[in-house]
Amino acid sequence: MRTYIYHIIAVVLFVTLGITSCIEPPLHLPGQNMELQIPQVETDLEVIWDVDVDFQTDWYYGWDLKDDSIWGSIGYTMPTSFEVHRYYKGDDPYAKHTTDEAFSIRSTRFRRYFQFGYYDMLFYSDIDSKDGTQVLVLNETLDSVTATTTGTRGISRSILEHSRSNEADPSGVIGLLNQPEIFYSAYPENIYISRDLSDYEFDPVENIYIKHIETKLRPLVYIYLVQFILYNNEDGRIKGINGNAALSSMASSTNVNTGHTGYKPALIYFNTRLKKNQEVNGQKCDIIGGKLTTFGLCDNEPFTRSGALYTGSRSNLRNYLYYDLIWKDGQVKTYEFDVTDQCHAQAHGGILTVWIDCSKLTPPDPLPSGTGSLFVPTVEDYDEVFWEIEI
């Protein structure tokens, strides 16, 4: 996991009445006798990398050029452009937001005039979608911004009902959602633009007064690498895969301001790829692998530099991986595996591993009925899903 830190440098240009020369700090500090105009504030965004998730140890699937072309690189990339929301609160740090000045920046530095008083500011990175089609949906209000994704087709009513049957509260599962694109946010609150020069640091090189503000730019979407280790398949009973997989009980939304995830669970669909004739711990096997992006666990705290633990209140939710296997007779069956403990131990991304003893798998029902894939419905079998997004 890479954490970014904003170093916001406020460069305040003070002007005295009747004085046009440069301001020297020893003469004017602490500044009680100065009349100050509205300051111009410059923000300088410095990115600091902090890797906290190990994507190497116990990752057997690997990541070749074909994987990279399908899903992109494994890690988190540095954002290059941002959306900014600026909320002015006057002299009351507890005031509610009444105005929202929104603008875009295409670099890590920009200048704006600030009134004296308190500000909240929301930064979030623009979305860089691999295929140019953004699935992330942002719902904005004066108080907060909520992110969710579009729904996806390609799931039958049976797998949704099957997922709901694993939950203590089956009515909460809202259906299958697309994976969100990776993006980041920072929400510094109560930034105080003061009239007192003693609150600023003088830069003798630039001949300006500087205010330093620091906040963290955190990821709001987490990466899970998923691998299925198939062993004892020497007789070839498992012929291959169709690539369908899904992870249940993941958050359907997140608060962009706070990073706290929503409480409504959803299935997140992702694709997989099979690599045959691999070796893990000296044993011959086949490995199915894929990359999954998600808001994370339901009702969960955001990632911090110290690595916040799972503290969600929805402890009754279980996380299941659903995946399709194709048997040697061509039949397809969907299997499930409980990865709840793995998800809770890696609440902000990591590696999910399923060990599959092919000799103990229950085969599909005999033809002509067959078991079939839960991911490929007929047209009339689509489940129409509606849900409300928390604002």
Detailed description of the structure:
By secondary structure, this protein is mainly β. It has two domains: 1-51 and 80-125 and 184-219, no CATH class; 55-75 and 143-183 and 220-391, no CATH class. Helix content is 7%, strand content 38%. It has four helices and 23 strands. The protein has helices at 25-28, 65-71, 157-165, 340-345, and strands at 4-12, 40-44, 82-90, 101-105, 109-113, 117-125, 136-140, 145-149, 176-177, 184-186, 191-193, 201-203, 208-219, 222-231, 238-240, 244-251, 254-255, 265-271, 273-280, 283-294, 320-327, 332-338, 350-357. The strands form five sheets. Strands 1, 3, 4, 6, 10, 11, 12 and 13 form an eight-stranded antiparallel sheet that branches. Strands 9, 15, 16, 18, 21 and 22 form a six-stranded mixed sheet that branches. The two termini are 27 Å apart.
What are the salient characteristics of this protein?
single chain, 391 residues, 2 domains, 6-stranded mixed sheet, 4 helices, 23 strands, elongated, DUF5119 domain-containing protein
